[in-house]
Each structure stands twice: as C-alpha cells, then as structure tokens.
Amino acid sequence: NAGVTQTPKFQVLKTGQSMTLQCAQDMNHNSMYWYRQDPGMGLRLIYYSASEGTTDKGEVPNGYNVSRLNKREFSLRLESAAPSQTSVYFCASSPRDRGYEQYFGPGTRLTVT
Amino acid sequence: AQRVTQPEKLLSVFKGAPVELKCNYSYSGSPELFWYVQYSRQRLQLLLRHISRESIKGFTADLNKGETSFHLKKPFAQEEDSAMYYCALSDFSQGGSEKLVFGKGTKLTVNP
Prior knowledge:
The complex is a heterodimer.
Chain A: E1 4-7, E2 10-13, E3 19-25, E4 31-38, E5 42-49, E6 56-57, E7 64-68, E8 74-78, E9 87-94, E10 103-104, E11 108-112
Parallel strand pairs in A: 2-11
Antiparallel strand pairs in A: 1-3, 3-8, 4-5, 4-9, 5-6, 7-8, 9-10, 9-11
Chain B: E1 3-5, E2 10-14, E3 19-21, E4 24-26, E5 31-38, E6 45-49, E7 60-64, E8 69-74, E9 83-91, E10 100-102, E11 106-111
Parallel strand pairs in B: 2-11
Antiparallel strand pairs in B: 1-4, 3-8, 5-6, 5-9, 7-8, 9-10, 9-11
C-alpha cells in the first residue's frame, strides 16, 4: 500500500494564480482531511470530509475549496493564491468517521510570491 | 471547546538525559489522546495513543484525567529523537467529532 499520497511535492505560485493540490489514499478510509502547517502555529485544519460526498469547514477554510471526488481522492483548490497561503499542506485520512488515528501524506510545500 | 496546549515551543536536552514533553487538554467528554512525531521534513506519524498503553521508541505517556494532562516521557533521550512532537485530542464518545485537535507542537532537540 502506498498509504496517503500527495501531488505536487513543491509548488511556486504568483499572487492571483490558482492551483489544485491532489490527495489520494488506498486504505479504504472514510474520512479525509486537509491541514496547513505554519511555524509557531502547528497544524490547522482547513477542510475535512467524513465520507464520500460530504465536506465540512475546519478552522481556516477561507480562500480554499475542496472536492471529495470519490472515496480515495480529496483535492484542495486555491482559486486566487495569496502570499498568506504560503505554507506546507498535509492531507490525512482516517479509518473511522470519529477522528480516530490519522495517517498523513508527505506534504506539499507551497510558496506564493 | 476542545483545546490542546503544549506550553513549550522548544525543548533542548543532552543525550542520555530524561525528557518530558508537556501536553494539557481541555475537554469535558471522554478524550482520546495521541502523540504524533514529525522528523525533519517528513510526514507526521503516530507515536503512541493512550488507549493502547504502548511504549514506542522508549516513549510513554500517561493520561491524567485529574490534571487533564498527557505528558510524553522518555528516561534517556537519543539524538535521533530530535523532532517536532504534536499532542492531539479526539472525541471518541458517542456522537463525537470527526476531527483531531492538535497542539501547536514542541520542537525537541537532543544535543550530543
């Protein structure tokens, strides 16, 4: 099993550009999550999906949209990137819909200039 | 609201010394608590969870409901323990949240 995979690993955007971060898991997990990690701020939840077809906002959803394409895939879209969105983005999945142990992807390092 | 506090942003110890990373939580239900570790530029991985009562890489953590704490301890730190450590809380009771709440993390440096 590959576990949780994310693409791309690195990305540089100019302010105003858009992009989609891809995440996939092959563990048949119900729940999937997107976090951002910033120095001194820890991990902050952007959006999550408790099951296929459902999505909910987390702590910092502004400026982002998500799509739970199917059970395996959960994408994060930045419609108009801003320098404040420079961060490391982690996708995670969980086998249960009650926030049980989460498995993380390798992260995407995004820089917005 | 659920909250996890890790009071130390940075912690530095010498190799062979005991180490304790503090975690306090605020929650009125039945918490499920975890410690995650992130080595330099790697993904987060689960270190241990309180219900399994395991000892992983020499680390242990005891849930103290009276003090609402879940401190991570190791009697003899090794240089390879240098990493970022996150404490996390989940509601495992009936009707609980699907989310984990993370603390802001403690960066542990073990000096030779």
